[in-house]
């Protein structure tokens, strides 16, 4: 039985009652967790694994997943501690720990991805899985991927601050108590993105749950992006870096520096979009991803 903050998680009977694409949802037991997973498209199509970023959930794909389902069988889980998926034990909150948990889910589903795509920290999880041999997609796509440490002193200060907030049991509750619509809107616009009212409200509903906030803080507090960054030259997987030109959370220049570290990578810059580019303009992102998937042989040429 969940206790404390873990009991203050989003409730499927409450927050989930009108969750985007609820009809695509199911719950799966894997890697010691109960996962919320959404699936779209024909099971006969190539499998696409979608991983959202820190603080989000499957709602992040509400516009993009149906578009990609025209060509793929799309699997989109809530990451551990996010949305409606159980949290990991604190000892497993590292990037490798998260990658192992998602690998356990993929194994339980029996659908190894031909294409893996992740937003922000979700892209880091997928890169770690590729490096560890847990998945072997023909194409890895990162939407404003968090694949490099923050520049300068922020690389030391940000994880330390997140760790202090994570360890303080009152922080998630305080954040949840103050998470009204205007606060969610300010947080989103601070990343360079602008979402419609429904998109903002979905984030507000998650931020208002202390258990979800704790999951996001734990993810940020326990990751070593410097270690992943050092390992990237060994990532043999063909990689597509999709970048919103107005991203204020991960500067677009980061993607071009990453491209030069990776054996087989290319950058596609989409101007006028921020960190949540895939939510702002899902049609544009789907078009870029579909074209690269065709070029990589994941899809048959049109």
Residue share in helix:
25-40%
In CATH, the homologous superfamily goes by the name Alpha/Beta hydrolase fold, catalytic domain
Based on secondary structure, the structural category is: alpha/beta
CATH level 3 topology: Rossmann fold
Domain tally: 1
| Biggest sheet record | 8 strands, mixed
What is the total tally of β strands? 8
What is the CATH level 1 assignment?
Alpha Beta
Instruction: Strand order, main sheet: write it out.
Output: 1-2-4-3-5-6-7-8
Tally of helical runs:
12
Taking pLDDT < 50 over at least 5 consecutive residues as the criterion, the unreliable ranges are 152-158, 160-168
Shape: globular
Round the Cα radius of gyration to an integer and report it.
Answer: 18 Å
Which sequence of SSEs, written as H and E, runs from N to C?
EEEHEHEHEHHHHHHEHEHH
- Portion of residues in beta strands equals 15-25%
Give the assembly state of these chains: single chain
Mean pLDDT: 89
CATH second-level architecture: 3-Layer(aba) Sandwich
State the separation between the terminal residues, measured CA to CA.
Answer: 51 Å
Account of the 3D structure:
It comes from Methylobacterium radiotolerans. This is Magnesium chelatase accessory protein. The protein is α/β, with parallel strands linked by helices and 302 residues long. The protein has one domain: Rossmann fold, CATH 3.40.50.1820. The protein contains 12 helices and 8 strands. An 8-stranded mixed sheet has the order 1-2-4-3-5-6-7-8, with helices on both faces. Strand 1 and strand 2 form a beta hairpin. The radius of gyration is 18 Å and the shape is globular. About 5% of the residues have low confidence.
């Amino acid at each position: 039985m969940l206790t404390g903050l873990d009991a203050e998680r989003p409730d499927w009977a409450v927050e989930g009652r009108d969750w985007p694409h609820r009809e695509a949802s199911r719950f799966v037991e894997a890697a010691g967790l109960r996962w919320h997973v959404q699936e779209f498209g024909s099971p006969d199509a190539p499998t696409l694994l979608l991983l959202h970023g820190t603080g989000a959930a499957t709602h992040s794909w509400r516009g993009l997943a149906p578009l990609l389902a025209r060509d793929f069988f799309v699997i989109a889980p809530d990451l551990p501690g996010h949305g409606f998926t159980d949290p990991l034990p604190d000892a497993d909150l590292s990037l490798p720990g998260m990658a192992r948990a998602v690998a356990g889910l993929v194994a339980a589903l029996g659908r190894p991805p031909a294409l893996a795509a992740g937003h922000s920290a979700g892209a880091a999880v997928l890169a770690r899985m590729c490096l560890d041999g847990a998945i072997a997609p023909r194409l890895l796509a990162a939407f404003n991927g968090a694949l490099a440490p923050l520049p300068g002193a922020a690389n030391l200060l940000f994880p330390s601050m997140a760790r202090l907030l994570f360890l303080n049991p009152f922080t998630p509750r305080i954040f949840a108590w103050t998470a009204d619509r205007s606060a969610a809107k300010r947080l989103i616009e601070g990343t360079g993105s602008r979402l419609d009212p429904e998109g903002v409200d979905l984030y507000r509903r998650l931020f208002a749950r202390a258990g979800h906030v704790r999951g996001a803080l734990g993810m940020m507090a326990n990751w070593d992006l410097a270690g992943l960054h050092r390992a990237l030259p060994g990532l043999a997987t063909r990689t597509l870096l999709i970048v919103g030109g107005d991203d204020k959370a991960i500067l677009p220049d980061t993607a071009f520096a990453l491209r030069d570290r990776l054996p087989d990578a290319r950058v596609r810059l989409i101007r006028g979009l921020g960190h949540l580019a895939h939510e702002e303009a899902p049609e544009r992102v789907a078009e870029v991803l579909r074209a690269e998937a065709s070029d990589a042989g994941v899809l048959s040429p049109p």
